[in-house]
């Protein structure tokens, strides 16, 4: 018995030390993500104060922009783990090549996203939404697409910074842009400072401008002395299709994985359009609050990806396993705190977004679901982040596809519309499906994480970019 206690005490030290490392990396990421999410909150609040229709229109546009942006940035998500493993292995001079090829890949992704969003108004016409909602959503989409090239520049160099263990620049930039974005929103929504009064469409204009400001600021950061060893701007700029393939094998599954998760939420938003603006607005508010809570475990997963990448690059596989364990345990503990924080004050939180009684009722009821599924949502996000540090992205992609679209969507449709003799629960039925889908992903990804962390030959294969499954 004493030996068992001694063994348990011995394991506390490494996890405690790892938690400090994760906190050092993760705290700036958390703040950066919260600042970025706060920009979306500002969009939602300011559009909602303008009118319920503009709020619903912005939410409808977000159901298109969200998945496209997630896919665009996710494809470039390979840059962080690849950079982290190079940095951990002392191969800084190879990072510049990754950055330059990432910019080419980003340009291709930005052009593709621009084209998709340009024709998105056709999809909006297929849902049972009011003409005014569609007008606001279409105007938002027409404006925001012009910011995509700037966003890819920012994402590439943010990935380089974070892969090299520097997570504060993104935090500082996001903090600066939060205030700027609010001023831009005020100007273009309400017609202040000589700008045109565009209502919800003004949110799209403000967002596009903010994307280009992000790019300008991150370029200033990567010219600092610390990044000189990476040779970011020295070397060939010709497209290297072998590197494209290397990044694509890792990044495309990342983009598709996040697309599956956010895409199912966006599809639900579109399906709810037929239930009226109040339901869509309430659903949007609940999702917005959940997004704020979700930023912390997602950021913890990003920090774990960096730590695991550094450890794998240095071939310290035991420490990589401890980093993954610590991150997921911390995420689970946070989930309990978040659930306890959200449930008792849900009505107060909703009141910050709207004063419409109908919208408040829907949103407050949905926050009960938000509080309940923190445990599965948070742990699956962090575990997927851990696996990205190993460059293990393909299997989590298939697990996400199964959980969200094969399990969660059919359940949501059945309860939402009352299929198969089930009660028709409307928006609440769809959220039941979302919760069950997330639970499936959480269990499966964590089982893979536990097995993967001790399979050294497989870790080596993935590190060499030659995975075999």
Structure notes:
This protein has 469 residues and is mainly α. The protein is built from 18 helices and no strands. It has helices at 2-50, 52-75, 79-88, 95-118, 120-124, 131-144, 148-163, 168-190, 201-221, 241-271, 277-313, 317-342, 346-351, 357-372, 374-389, 394-417, 427-452, 456-463. The longest helix is centred in the N-terminal third of the chain and has 49 residues, at 2-50. Mean pLDDT is 86; it is low at 1-10.
Number of helices: 18
Q: Helicity range of the residues?
A: over 70%
Q: What is the number of strand segments?
A: 0
Ends distance: 40 Å
Shape: globular
For the sheet with most strands, the description reads: none
Q: What fraction strand?
A: under 5%
Uncertain stretches: 1-10
Radius of gyration, whole Å: 22 Å
Give a topology summary.
Layout: H1 2-50, H2 52-75, H3 79-88, H4 95-118, H5 120-124, H6 131-144, H7 148-163, H8 168-190, H9 201-221, H10 241-271, H11 277-313, H12 317-342, H13 346-351, H14 357-372, H15 374-389, H16 394-417, H17 427-452, H18 456-463
Helix pairs in contact: 1-2, 1-8, 1-11, 1-12, 2-4, 2-6, 2-10, 2-11, 3-4, 3-7, 3-11, 4-7, 6-9, 7-9, 8-9, 10-16, 11-12, 11-14, 11-15, 12-14, 12-15, 15-17, 16-17
List keywords for this structure.
18 helices, 80% helix, disordered N terminus, 469 residues, mainly alpha
